[in-house]
Design a protein that fits this description.
Bound molecules: 3,4-dihydroxybenzoic acid, magnesium ion
Number of helices: 8
CATH class: Alpha Beta
Largest sheet: 7 strands, mixed
Order of helices and strands: HHHEHEHEHEHEHEE
CATH architecture: 3-Layer(aba) Sandwich
CATH topology: Rossmann fold
Number of strands: 7
Helix content: 40-55%
Shape: globular
Length: 224
């Protein structure tokens, strides 16, 4: 059992429950054509994020890591007509591709793009009085994950849902002596998640077309 089976099963489930429609298909194609790395969430994961945002009745979403806007489209589709999603990426080229993809998906009125390193943009958002956010998706560079989580908490309210992608990394997360800054970032994030008293959290390992990885989920507690 490994990658081939995971991919075929993912394609099977995707065909049944999360088929890519023209807007998502176009977003993937345009991202590839622009040379963006194909590290966006899979279709089944995108549908999962969409369902979580629906379940939260999220009206105000924050996404860290725009890339080509594929997950942005899934998440923005869960918003009510007056809902807002702010998506942040350090790379202006990513944002340009995503802006076009989101426009093609008919979601430009709900999505605001912010360009800059997350740790620069997040304090700006706080100063501007943006948030609190109902749903925060952390999927940017992994080395700053613990700091993104701290900011997510500052910009949340009791009941907010924080999801982080890529917390397992093929099991590399077990390696306490790793010199890989990304894995170190994920490990520091996991420890901070464990130490944080204001959330209840878990992590789910996932396999599929994107390999073996996982999502963290944290709910901000009522008395936070
Ligand atoms: C990488 C980043 C991601 O967000 C992801 O889902 C997979 C891989 C990366 O930086 O390698
Ligand atoms: Mg990711």
């Amino acid at each position: 059992m490994s990658q081939n089976v995971w991919t075929e099963v993912d394609n099977y489930i995707c065909g049944l429950l999360a088929p890519n429609d023209p807007a998502l298909e176009a977003a993937l194609k345009a991202s590839e054509a622009a040379g963006l790395p194909a590290i966006q969430v899979s279709a089944t994961q995108g549908k999962f994020l969409y369902l979580l945002a629906c379940l939260m009745r999220a009206g105000n979403i924050l996404e860290l890591g725009t890339l080509g806007g594929y997950s942005t489209i899934w998440l923005a589709r869960a918003l009510p007509p007056k809902g807002r999603l702010i998506t942040v990426d350090a790379n202006p080229k990513h944002t340009e591709v995503a802006r076009s993809n989101v426009a093609f998906a008919g979601l430009s009125d709900r999505v605001e793009f912010r360009v800059g390193p997350g740790l620069d943009v997040l304090p700006q958002l706080e100063r501007e009085g943006r948030g609190p956010f109902d749903f925060i998706f952390i999927d940017a560079n992994k080395s700053d994950m613990p700091e993104y989580f701290a900011w997510a908490l500052r910009l949340s309210h009791p009941g907010s849902l924080i999801i982080a992608d890529n917390v397992i990394r093929d099991g590399k997360v077990l390696d306490a002596s790793t010199v890989d800054a990304d894995i170190q970032g994920v490990r520091r994030f996991n420890q901070r998640l464990a130490d944080e008293k204001t959330v209840s959290a878990t992590e789910l390992q996932t396999v599929g077309s994107k390999g073996y990885d996982g999502f963290a989920m944290a709910v901000v507690l009522a008395d936070a």
